[in-house]
């Protein structure tokens, strides 16, 4: 090619004639024709594809900008998102509802999507939108056989009284969306007591329902772009402390006798009572949820209370409340024994908790139906009264067994690990004092901490001993020098590996190679410190 160009650039008629011959030979070669044809085809396909994207209304992502919907949907467990869902024709005259909204505030997780504004809702924080929520839920209930529906709650403050969800429903809270509870308790319905409790937890008789409620549901998703559900609990807390309420306060979010539930990527704030309370549910996933309440003056605002539930995952959550961060329950005394629904197969991982007045993760005290197969992994508890707590008493019955705590870090905690068997609070005088709970197979591994006042206080009793309790690699820094930093009584088990302090005498102590160090058959009983009751 270079020789050809040099010949073409020389002067003279002969050179010009030769130049033309070379150019003709080059463009008529089969290789050149092949390249030219493919270039034209590629240019045509590129132009056709670009025109299709523009005509369909889609935008081409620019470098450096991420697609928030894709990144959000990839974090949702057990949800398949179709980026091009098939069109669904809704006959509004048949359903007596508005057609699906064209405005989108989040990814499409259901075949049909409604916007709360389609039902004449007003997000000014003053207009009551209960009827709008009820109409939207009723519209979705009509679509159950077609895959259900999604209700988008756009940015705004949506004041409402309590309302119920339905099966095959997704409640999606956009960024900046706040579902705000009405403060007047006259708007809150009264429900029968939970069958495994016999009474309202604070008063005999009926109890207030939750702000968002559901019973006997299947396939329910509550998610969003970190929108908020706010219970405005301040009024409830004040009236409770002044004894102005005649019924037990209601939770913020309660689902009962339901299955296949996903709650993710939302904030739950200022619940009147327990915040998130799944009751007798199966297959529950709670992920990337933030739960907030004042650290004092907000009584009984537990974060997450799985109650007689099976197959539960709680992960990647931040909880700062006025009571237990997570409390696993299964019924109260003879009522829980008769109901007979345990909490089992529960996984808690990657959770951060602050609980100034209570504990990071608790089991009990209402555990009469039994609690088993619980794993707590990667737990961080800071500025809390207790890190890990198990509480029960004679009269509860039931069992707590096969419990595993791994990779727990405690920072500025008064008591790191505490087990109490004298939590004597009962619904009535008809409980059976001979219903003795069984505590066994409880394991602690990789427990670390700093600025902890009392690392371990496990207080069994002669009637309720603890069996097969193990510690492995426990290293907790003390906030002050304490002679008996590892306190326990009426306990059987062993310690493996390093221990921050000599373990109590009821425990075998093994080194890393599992060589037995020492064994004392009976330990001197250590009286537990005076307890403070919390629900």
From TrEMBL:
Family note: Belongs to the glycosyl hydrolase 28 family.
GO biological process: carbohydrate metabolic process
Name of the protein this chain belongs to: Polygalacturonase
MF annotations from Gene Ontology: polygalacturonase activity
PANTHER family: PECTIN LYASE-LIKE SUPERFAMILY PROTEIN, PECTIN LYASE-RELATED
Domain of life (superkingdom): Eukaryota
UniProt-listed InterPro entries: GH28_Enzymes, Glyco_hydro_28, PbH1
UniProt xrefs under SMART domains: PbH1 (SM00710)
UniProt keyword annotations, A-Z: Glycosidase, Hydrolase, Membrane, Transmembrane, Transmembrane helix
Membrane-spanning intervals of the chain: 21-46
